[in-house]
Amino acid sequence: MFELLLLIYLLPVIFVAALLLKLVLWLVKKIFQLAGWLIKHLCVLVWKCLLLILGVIVGARCINRSPDSR
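Above: the chain sequence. Below: its structure as tokens.
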């Protein structure tokens, strides 16, 4: 009788624990996907900013050159 009551009590607890574990694993997976996405886009943004700065510097040097220095 005791084993039957223990089984009746533990089945819902195990079911809820399994659902919580599944939720936690899903959240961890999504967090890592979000981190990868953010790092990827951050690298792209940094690269574009570096190219913009380089373009501005090169453009400013070309524009500020005196006409007889060619």
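Residues 27 and 33 are 10 Å apart (CA to CA).
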